[in-house]
Amino acid sequence: MSATDTYRDAGVDTAAGDRAVELMKAAVSATHGPEVRGGVGGFAGLFDASALTAYRAPLLATSTDGVGTKIALAQAIDRHDTIGQDLVGMVVDDIVVVGATPLFMTDYIACGRVVPERIASIVTGIARACEATGTALVGGETAEHPGLMAPDDYDVAGAATGVVEADAVLGAERVLDGDVVLALESSGLHSNGFSLVRHILASRGIGLTDHSDDLGGVVAEVLLEPTRLYTAPLLDALGDERSAGAIHSLSHVTGGGIAANLARVLPRGSWVEVDRSTWSPAPVFRALSELAGTSLESSEGTWNLGIGFFAVVDAARASAVAEVLTAGGIPTWAVGTVATSSRDLTGFEQGAKGVDGGAVRLVGSFAG
Description:
Blueprint: H1 14-29, E1 36-37, E2 46-47, E3 58-66, H2 71-77, H3 83-95, E4 101-111, H4 116-133, E5 136-144, E6 154-165, E7 180-185, H5 194-203, E8 211-212, E9 217-218, H6 219-223, H7 231-239, E10 247-252, H8 257-263, E11 271-275, H9 283-292, E12 307-313, H10 318-327, E13 332-337, E14 349-352, E15 355-363
Parallel strand pairs: 4-5, 11-15
Antiparallel strand pairs: 1-2, 3-6, 4-6, 7-12, 7-13, 8-9, 10-12, 14-15
Helix pairs in contact: 1-4, 3-4
């Protein structure tokens, strides 16, 4: 080995990695309660599970995900403080679908080159969102992949674990004929469908750093609107005396769009018609559809179009659940009713992601 044949010469800067850890340390530590042992920087994160002894039959819930090609927008304008919230939204909000309370999360960032300030910005965003959802960020890893990834490229993924009582698990088996389907408003595109977004923009010659009158600002800045976090308001609703026990199943509207994700949390043999006239998709969806020269309806299997979550609830307390969630900061409204009567299901989305669930289709026209 010559004097210049070092790990740094090969493209891996361990000192930069250490600097990134120092920059993010305070934000990560802010997510730690007394359950977290060992602090930041260990080989493994430690979480005191003694509290689980208070559960009668605790089930651990786990989820993992990334944020997809939305990262390209952050890279285009060198703004990385919102991607972390997108990651937590994709991972932790999947756990609350079964009624679980999140406990802890870990993250993984692969990059071509460690830029300490960039890595710290990403992880600080993750930590702030973890804090907002009551999730301890107990560990993570940043890996440099020189030669495999371009210097300024990166990808981020995460995994989280939560807990729920076995007899409190939400799901299709709790759903009854006549239950009301509530829609919870999204904050925008969230973290799905960005390959289509980028295709539309590229086909129209619109750059991510361009100003777009159609979108109302610099393209990447507008489209980087972070994913809404649903965990805390949903957990509050599950525990509120006005709505406790009324929520039978939940669905996170992510990849696959509106109908497919709702169908996953409905029992086999049931069906729902989601009434488009109950909401008006946000301007960002309308602008992208107009740029593409397509209808809003054509993207229902890709974008959330303004619905980030569904709650299937007891009909007698549907209004109470909607009031609790709206008061918690998430506008919520009724979009349909579960039925189990026999009917022709032609045109319905039936099950998804390997789940043999219910059937869903969207009907009517969107509100103006």
